[in-house]
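Review form for a predicted model. The reviewer records the input and the model, then writes brief findings.
Reviewer: anonymous (R2)
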Amino acid sequence: MILSAVRVVIAALFTAFMAALMTLTSLVIRSERAYYSMARFYSRTVLALCGVELIVEGADRVDFKRNHVVVANHASMFDIPAVVAGLPGDVRIVYKKELERIPVFGWGLRYGGTYIAIDRQNRHEAIHGLEEAAAKITRGGSVLMFGEGTRTPDGKLHPFKRGAFNLAARAGVPVVPLTINGSFKIMPKGSLRIHPGTITLGVETPIETHASNGRSAELEMRDEVRAAIERHYKDQ
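Model under review:
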């Protein structure tokens, strides 16, 4: 327990330092390339500090020079650093706007200008956020969204929401199913203890989408992507 507490403190201090540095850098030089580089450095370092090994399987199935919407299951706070550290190419994170309220860390998200906030409490603002995300995809870079919308409370795969697939349709880009295994055991929702372990990212073949297919096609794609993730997901 003492070692776990030490890991939590070190990870929190490092996160605060990097968030402050990323905020300052973004305000001064406004470089997305610098932001991505620092995000990748932060993610790899925090995983190492917490004793987390990362394995990526199937990355060769995707041409990461193309833009995609990456849809993953969500089990832990370690999912985002695992994806940022493990996937080739630059991935924008779509995050819930409430995170911007967190001192220092939230500032890094808000003022970085690279990741995309979604206000889930305001439908109009949520739609605006999806439109912003679609515009950023067309300008370059992929986007990560969690299909369930929030972390699983029990380690099981829960129903997926429609938002990620609406975004893919708006942007006219393929969806990449991504299965994240192992992160729930490392730090489940509601816990502040870190258990060293292994996170495995399973990358599936992209599923093409078309902007004109409508709501029913989005729901069909949602079910197809969830089924692809479920085939490889291990209850934790």
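Findings: The beta strands are 52-57, 69-72, 91-96, 116-118, 142-146, 175-181, 197-203.
Further findings: The longest strand covers residues 175-181.
Recommendation: see findings above.
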